[in-house]
Design a protein that fits this description.
Layout (H helix, E strand, L loop, with lengths): L1 H6 L3 H40 L3 H28 L5 H15 L2 H24 L5 H6 L3 E6 L2 E6 L8 E4 L9 E3 L4 E4 L1 H4 L5 E3 L4 E2 L4 E2 L4 E5 L7 H15 L6 H24 L2 H10 L3 H20 L2 E3 L2 H9 L2 E5 H5 L5 E7 L6 H12 L5 H12 L8 E6 L3 E6 L2 E6 L10 H13 L2 E7 L2 E9 L6 H11 L3 E5 L4 H11 L3 E3 L4 H12 L4 E5 L5 H6 L2 E5 L5 H6 L2 E3 L5 H36 L5 H19 L15 H16 L1 H16 L3 H37 L5 H27 L4 H28 L6
Parallel strand pairs: 11-18, 11-20, 18-19, 20-21, 21-22
Antiparallel strand pairs: 1-2, 1-3, 3-9, 4-7, 4-9, 5-6, 5-8, 10-22, 12-17, 13-14, 14-15, 15-16, 16-17
Helix pairs in contact: 2-3, 2-5, 3-4, 3-5, 4-5, 4-10, 5-11, 9-10, 9-11, 9-22, 10-22, 10-23, 11-22, 11-23, 12-22, 14-15, 17-22, 22-23, 24-26, 25-26, 25-28, 26-27, 27-28
Length: 785
Amino acid sequence: MESTVASEEDHGGRQDRQALARTGSGRRLTESALLVVTAGALAGGGIAWVLGHRDTADACWAVGTALALPPAVAWVVGALRRQRIGVDVIAVLALAGTLAVGEYLAGALIGLMLATGRSLEAAAEQRASRDLRSLLEHAPRSARRRDGPDVAVVPLDEVAPGDVLIVGPGEVVPVDGVVVADPAVLDESVLTGESAQVERHAGEGVRSGVVNAGGVFEVSATATAADSTYAEIVRLARQAGAERAPTVRLAERYAAWFLPLSLALAALAWLVSGSAVRAVAVLVVATPCPLLLATPVAIVSGLSQCARRGAVVRDGGALERLGRARTLVIDKTGTLTVGRPRVLEVVGAPGGPSPGEVLRLAASLDQVSAHVLAEAIVREARARTLSLTSPHDVAEEPGRGITGTVSGHRIVVGRTGLPPADLPEWACAVDNRALLDGAATVWLTVDGVLCGALLLRDPLRHDAPRTIRRLRTAGLNRLLMLTGDRPEPAREVGAVLGLDEVRAGQLPADKIATVREESGRAVTVMVGDGVNDAPALAAADVGVAMGARGSTSASEAADIVLTTDRVARLADAMEIAGRARRIAVQSAAAGMTMSLVAMTAALLGRLPPAPGALLQEVIDMVVILNALRALLPAPGTRPALEPAAESLIHRFATEHDDLRDTLDAIREAAGLLTTESGPHALSAVREINRLLTDRLLPHEHAEEHELYPALNRRLGPEATDTMSRAHAEIERLAQRIATHIRLADEQGGLRPEQLDDLRASLYGLHTILRLHFTQEEESYFSLAP
């Protein structure tokens, strides 16, 4: 496929690019040399001035100013040819004016600022190039084609529709096609972003770029490599990067009116007084340092702040656009969600093993499986510190499950093998629950008997709800989620987060179309992490990639890369960008206002060139010092948590994971009371009471008396008041359950009149605990790194 894409480039185009590359290299060399020369001249003059050699100092500064003038003129001429005009014009006039009136220090400073700005801009352009090497590296270059009984490896360009290709385990499907015979188990995350594997049967279509996650299968090609899905993603990303219009920077927008006004005042001064000196005096105080210095200082300070918060912004233009953004388009999987499945709930059959034992048996067998769901099951078992057993006689059938012997029992983890009509009542309830929760179901069969189930789902990130609220506060007024997932789980995520719109089943072409549509209305930010997001990231006004675990191509196509696996860093970056832009605007406006006052004084003859240059330096210092405020935290920003509070957060987050089996047991006991009320049900309720007394209530008590006081010292007591009320309700329900057990002991068993209230207490406790855990994880646990 790489050769196919490359073949689209003609020889003339390559020559043009080589010529442009040589030109760009020469330009960067010139800019780097000018930076060194102007910095050296300024430093040399400063040393001479300190030593008392004023003439030598002036000579050094004059050389720096004179050397900066020719390239500055060339930059202005080049900009005019592109029909663009900016602050460089005033800088050229000011450089010439400082040479004319002998204000060499001011000229050297202007020259250094020009050289620095050009070098930084060139470096940013080089870093921000849309390099799609990783996309091409992922694409296969050959295919195994069946020709009768023979199989030959052929270049991908030779594959034609109708050819039968063989795709081995772990290989990438080379072209679009349909499955010929055996079912294909595929990892489509490259295209859809969804981590769950899918199964395609004979006659069903498969797309190029997806990975074979199962056994060998055959595919009949329906398109050439150039016309297949993956090649289209490469083309979309290239096209999007090329079509995005260059941004008009903040300083250029101000220069659009400041430049003609400065020239008009200088001309008026010359016309009124008949003196060129007075015109030069106007130009000296019109030197656009508030634009050349203060604006970049504020923006660069914002870039530094973002980097410290784990958001690497490629250039100042991206930060300025982020500060003006009003629409967010965000991917779901790996961005708002964790990006990998997690055990949501464990269910044991009535009279069968407990939920903990179901998880232990399934994880013991899944230790030897590379399936994405198996990894999640094993991870959950280890998080609950369960003791796993080594399996024997293991056999795995892709798309069906894994079979083996664990502790002398024949275990099957995967599908049930039973038609829906033959499922027991409890299993039907699990199926319904999975449908409602948008979860995948993994069944456990022990010695031929269906004994349990595990529900798995890609969960929301703990910091996602808080981040969405912060993004709205930072200025976003439209939030749209795009996902390749099914509509049901997508709508649930949208409802929980309060998003304005949710679009499911999205392919890369759909995403890029949506981003272009939204960008036509307002400055739009696109957030994603997968290869399938790269074209949309390149097309957006601001592309943001989850770089900690996201694809390389997504990071290369983005303007901002979040280096930590936390979407909250986007909210940090947007708050910093908005503040940096406000400070830049404030500095530029204040500096230009003061310059206009000084220009008026120079026009009236009240401010000669030399004092004018000195006054301009004072103005520069004022606006630069104001711009440096962008380096400081915003007023009202809460201080970081103390190390002790962070340690407590990590401790209680771990306890939440350990207590998930208790939540499963509470729900199972409530469900058991629906079908029976005998000794087995009473035993289950007794176990719940033991778990509450020994594990859950001590955890809640420790939170109330250790974690919350530590948080209150930073967040204020109002931040934990409602959580304390939840603790009281949890304890009330636990006492109610304990009272029911005492009554049952006195009466020789559970009475019919107890069942409704006991069941309601268990279901209520389960619901409150799930909500309470979620609120703590969102509000408190997300504060710690």
